[in-house]
TrEMBL record:
Origin organism lineage: Bacteria, Bacillati, Actinomycetota, Actinomycetes, Kitasatosporales
Protein name per its UniProtKB record: Molybdopterin-dependent oxidoreductase
Record's signal peptide: none
Annotated source species: Streptomyces anthocyanicus
Domain of life of the native organism: Bacteria
Region (Disordered): 1-25, 780-828
Residue ranges annotated for the Aldehyde oxidase/xanthine dehydrogenase a/b hammerhead domain, each copy included: 34-141
InterPro entries the UniProt entry points to: Ald_Oxase/Xan_DH_a/b, Ald_Oxase/Xan_DH_a/b_sf, Ald_Oxase/xanthine_DH-like, AldOxase/xan_DH_MoCoBD1, AldOxase/xan_DH_MoCoBD2, AldOxase/xan_DH_Mopterin-bd_sf
Amino acid sequence: MAANGAPAGLTQGSGTKGGIGESTLRPDGVLKVTGEFAYASDMWHEDMLWGQILRSTVAHAEIVSVDTGEALATPGVYAVMTYDDLPTDVRHYGLEIRDTPVLAHGKVRHHGEPVAIVAADHPETARRAAAKIKVEYRELPLVTDEASATAPGAVLVHEHRTDHHSGHVPHPNIVHRQPIVRGDAAAAAARADVIVTGDYHFGMQDQAFLGPESGLAVPGEDGGVDLYIATQWLHSDLRQIAPVLGLPEDKVRMTLSGVGGAFGGREDLSMQIHACLLALRTGKPVKMVYNRFESFFGHVHRHPARLHYEHGATRDGRLTHVRCRIVLDGGAYASASPAVVGNAASLSVGPYVCEDVDIEALALYSNNPPCGAMRGFGAVQACFAYEAQMDKVAAGLGLDPVEFRRINAMEQGTLMPTGQPVDSPAPVAELLRRVKAMPMPPERQWESSEGADVRQLPGGLSNTTHGEGVVRGVGYAVGIKNVGFSEGFDDYSTARVRLEAAGGRPVVTVHTAMAEVGQGGVTVHAQIARTELGVTQVTIRPADTRVGSAGSTSASRQTYVTGGAIKHACELVRERVLELGRRRFGSYHPAWATAGLLLEGGKVVTDGGEVLADLVDVLEDEAVEVEEEWRHRPTQPFDPRTGQGDGHVQYSFAAHRAVVEVDTELGLVKVIELACAQDVGKALNPLSVVGQIQGGTVQGLGIAVMEEIVVDPVTAKVQNPSFTDYLLPTILDTPALPVDVLELADDHAPYGLRGVGEAPTLSSTPAVLAAIRDATGLALDRTPVRPEHLTGTAGSDRHPQDPPGGARNVTPSAPPGAPAKSRSARGT
């Protein structure tokens, strides 16, 4: 390791201090760790009001009546709005399908759906007024799973669909369906010496960002509105907000405020439209901040999934075929479900060579909570299942599971199930070799001369064991994730770069609409500008809609796409600066006429290092500014019948080894180590790269052993909407996280980089499950694994949606706004 904590031997920096390849510190880092950073929830405005949402207490019901009279009469209340008070005929929004009502009308389709909004002079007044709104519901039959969604005569979640997917699905309660067929899976199955099948259940995970949804809407004198908001995609928000308000987009001015994490949960709208409506209605600034309970209802979650797989292989360890069916529960509204289906289908075989596949992936409409984007985006659920299958096939053949994966590992040139060639390095076998070669953590670390250190044992300080009944297990997994938006989406970003002299030195200003959600994009963007323009002083302007779209901070795309836009804009600035220099100084030195001039260290230099001029002298009083869009290579939609097509722009790969210790008597698990090897193409900021890998790894650990939103299958109500009952890994649950970073450049990407943030979230989960299986000998076909799954003590309280032997800890339902009361069992 280098002195800064990054792995030694990674990319070296450029000639200008703070350029790419260096582990420069984050400009927001100190402020965040000292508690001085201003998040969206910290915003304040003179004379502002507070907004509050009234949410449905049932999951599917006709709205018979809404009585707002008592709420309006409450002292301090300035406005109460329902669907009937919306200012235009545009009353729905959505990322792709506009099926989500701004406020419920006619019926509610999920527990916690917004029905009315209130603005008052104090947050508690707003909450009390919202509670006074009387809503009469007539409950309707529920759609909660595939059986109830597609049965003859099934209740339709959306009765009158007209979206572009509706003509390609076998039932109106299916949001989107994507088959992928290549080769002849049936014929290939006949050649298999071993065929293994499996059914898997992946639980609903929450993004669980620590900064709750929050925003401040300020009405403008021109009849418009300024919105300061924590989001992932400013221009997508703008495109959905402006039509509902009846305003042109230039009158809805959006500025990114401090974002406390996202992971996909801020890609959809939350209170953006509500805050703007109340601000325009009252003529006063309106602030809205969800509490933690509301946050669980205020954003989408990761799709729970049911997955059926069949793998076949020959005796020499070669895969013959893969058949699979993936059913994702999209909940009440479409959100990003169509794209998640495309990812789940196209990545469902994993990073392996397989010529014959028969794949079906689909997402359901149901009355469960809406699900959409979350880190890994459909590939996470698939990876959990196909890696469990790879272990089963290896066992059936009597092969080492890592060796079996190595035999079938894809490489550059391999065809994906969609027929797309992988046209950049795909070092799957090398990643497996590296992660297996890492030193193993010592056995029985809890033992010391003074007795057992219970902190190192399953159960920790609860002192449940001193080592008796504790068994170690080791598991491996590897995954593949696409980078960037896919399936023909016009994925671009815009950057405005300005170079000028100020205070006797050259200064660069970079302006994009990229949402900094904690990933460190602002750090890397400054590094790119320093590298390309040779200037140390770089200012990153706040993200807003006064510059063109930067796309979403998702799909591991921002360093690739917005970084690419900044690089391109800087190149154009550099060309103009050199032309300016040639006009002013070209007659003084013949080197000005050459093509190999560079900007480095605030000077114009030749490729041999000779200084021709200071940038300040070249610029004088002139500023050079460029605003440019940049796109990656185009992709194609998948064929709706065969799934063939070049749907993705880039792939990323990561492998994990998990080491766990399990108290087999109590079903408690302690993850001792989660080692990762990942190819990053080129590490622009090595320390940030390692941080992303470790963060994704821990998020995968969470869904493996503790994280799950529990939904009652009888009422479709969320049972654990709090951080008391929805369990997250803490520092005490986080194991050692050694990282081995491989840099094999992708020639199609800026600097050869590869998106980093999502791939480690895929393989960490199945690696942990494989290790627990290794320790216990149990099949374990669901996430998260709970103690009762390991001890066989589920009994008669088994949740109806669980596989045999599984159980859930169910908290009695409560209306949104009331605290949850009971606590689920912790898995670590």
